[in-house]
Design goal:
Elements: E1 9-15, H1 22-30, E2 38-43, H2 50-55, E3 63-67, H3 74-84, E4 89-93, E5 98-99, H4 103-110, E6 116-123, E7 131-132, H5 143-152, E8 162-165, H6 183-193, E9 197-207, H7 222-245
Length: 255
């Protein structure tokens, strides 16, 4: 196992009832990691074979399995995984996607100039690679526009396509207690509020769509939409507070 001070990349995965797909995802992640990287999987009291599948990988010293004693929900589970990470760069990961070759190096390159990187994804199994370009590199510095787009709900950021430098982690962690969903939008708001977001045009992973995705595939009821928008405004307020509390995190001039 690499010494904590030598760990380069920490991949933080929240797992819950993921036995159908998690092995393929872990295989794709390990293929991208070097000997001084780690994969932290926090199992959220799944009750199926998820933890057993992950445990079979722990012969690889890079893989760490942590079990929640009771179900905490995916936001708190991601928060715990991030808190256990020891690397210089933290990648968020879902349990059911597939990473593309070259993903880590491309994202690490982007993190040399910004604290947070967000990428696009392709849909697994769709013709034409299923590429969806919802984030564009030319919008990386349009932080106020990006914040507005998050607040009104038309610029989605997906945690599975995001990574953050550990030296900027105080902007993101711990996730505020009022955040009950969308930890990825919280990260997007903190990064944009601090002028620390960069987008990559090309996809870096295949996202698997199935009936158990956390992100809903159908339109949500109006009451839930309004509740989420109110939470987003609270997120922004907290993101601005943390920006003020962490002046040492370098920001782009003028923001």
């Amino acid at each position: 196992m690499p010494a904590p001070e030598n760990i380069r990349v920490s991949v933080c995965m929240a797992a819950y009832r993921g036995e159908a797909y998690i092995k393929e995802q872990i295989d794709s992640i390990l293929a991208e990691l070097g000997p001084d990287d780690e994969l932290i999987v926090v199992d959220d009291a799944s009750g199926d074979g998820t933890a057993g599948i992950v445990e079979a990988f722990t012969g690889d010293a890079r893989v760490r399995l942590v079990r929640n004693e009771h179900n905490m929900g995916y936001v708190r589970t991601f928060n715990r995984a991030v808190g256990l990470a020891r690397g210089k760069y933290l990648f968020l990961s879902d349990q059911d996607d597939v990473w593309m070759p070259g993903r880590v190096q491309r994202m690490l390159h982007a993190l040399q100039d910004s604290a947070v990187v967000a990428t696009n994804f392709a849909i697994l199994g769709q013709d034409g690679s299923g590429k969806r370009t919802v984030l564009r590199s030319r919008d990386s510095t349009h932080n106020i526009r990006n914040i507005f787009a998050v607040l009104v709900g038309y610029r989605p950021y997906f945690g599975c396509g995001m990574a953050i430098r550990a030296d900027a982690l105080d902007l993101f962690a711990p996730v505020p207690s009022f955040v009950f969903e969308s930890h990825d939008l919280w990260l997007a708001l903190t990064a944009n509020a601090s002028g620390q977001m960069v987008h990559l045009d090309e996809p870096t992973l295949y996202r698997r769509l199935h009936d158990n995705n956390v992100t809903p595939s159908t339109r949500r009821p109006l009451a839930k939409i309004l509740r989420a928008r109110i939470m987003a405004f609270r997120m922004l307020g907290e993101a601005l507070r943390r920006r003020s509390a962490n002046p040492g995190i370098r920001r782009r001039p003028g923001f």
